[in-house]
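Input record (one chain):
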Amino acid sequence: MLRERNFRRFYAGYVTSLLGTSMSSVALAFAVLDGGGTTADLGYVFAAGVVPEVLFMLGGGVSADRLGRRPVMLSADVIRFAAQAALAAALFAGPPPIWLIAALNGLLGAGGAFFTPALGALTPDIAPAGHLSDANALLGLAQSVTSVAGPAIAGVLVAATMPGVVIALDAASYGASVLALSLLHLPARKAPPRSPLRDLADGWSQFRSVNWLWVTTVQFALFNLITWAPYLLLGPVLSRDYLGGARAWGLILTAQAAGAIVAGTLLVGRRPRRPVVASVIGAFGYPMPCLLLALHAPAYGVAAAALAAGVGSAVSSTFSATALQQQVPPEMLARVMAFSLTGSFALGSAAFAIIGPVAGVIGAGTVLGAAAAWGLLSPAVVLAVPAVRSVTWRQAGAARQDPAG
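The corresponding structure, as predicted from the sequence alone:
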């Protein structure tokens, strides 16, 4: 895979950018809290980064298909570089107001809304023929590795210097991504002259026609609402209440990332005959830590369940992305991916506002028990859908099968 020049160049910039991003999330939290911000202020800042990403994702998909994947990704990274450079400068000058941190984090999220669907559509253009799933596995592996390394490095740097230093490094990492993208050699794509609304409507029609895709999108919309958001919010709460605190939660998250790293490495070269079935089977791993937390299992038991969740996430994301890239026409890929991402994550982002009050009434353990039950039930239901079971692996150069299959 890394012998392919385009992929190698992009991967170097992408890994650098991911490492900067995973470092900056730690620095951002300390920038708010060290500057006198409250927990509520931190929530506002994090929400400011998530909401624009959901709102602009569809526009990002349309732009990538109309203007080209690389130009859109370059523009997104330039915007993110500028946002982080401005935030670093503000932090060096003194504690900035919360509204300024939130505004710049919102600009960062808007850049991500344009970058993410373009990335999924760019991957088939830079992956060697016949190695699309390997490319997706390596991209997922980069996310897993940096999610472990980034916070660890950031913690040391923030303690030794200040949050602004880490934010400045993140800005530089976006510069590295811009350089890598600018060095790619890609065929020019020309979209027919149409209105953006027509492009959006065509993307919706294509998304709706791929039966297995909208079924799994609905699955993950409800999964993120009912299972994953409660895990992310209540996992630290139960870790504090009965596992001993932040160290236990850190162990759980590290085990989860380790599972994804191991699985991502082993997935290179794998070609399941039915990739969507493999993806859905992987989803059974996600709710395992919810179940163990609900049962008040010891920290190492929850960590083992999180390891299984990491393995499942790598399998699920790798093969779902590959199937989507194989089944959807290239000229529609960014828009269809944007519809899938928006549908999958919109409800989950809103869930954080209601999980806390619900857990306060019925208990965190009960919420996580229900989360685990839904997380196990939903992939079983999806596997029963014929459209999910009928999608087969498409070799490079083979004719596309009916996307409704």
